[in-house]
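We both want to read discrete structure tokens more fluently, so let's practise on a single case. Once you have written the record down, we can walk along the chain together.
***
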Amino acid sequence: MTRWEYCTRARLSEADLNALGADGWELVSAVYNADRMFTVLYFKRSAGGDR
């Protein structure tokens, strides 16, 4: 069974997004926080030996 690890980020440049992709992170969701006026990005990748 595949195990996943997750991370969240708020403010990223295009270079940051490319680096996350190169490390195997996949964007799975983006949630806008209207109170604080920023978007939280949620990423996942396979954990451990699955990579």
Remarks:
- The radius of gyration is 12 Å.
- Residues 14-22 form the longest helix (9 residues).
- Residues 3 and 36 are 32 Å apart (CA to CA).
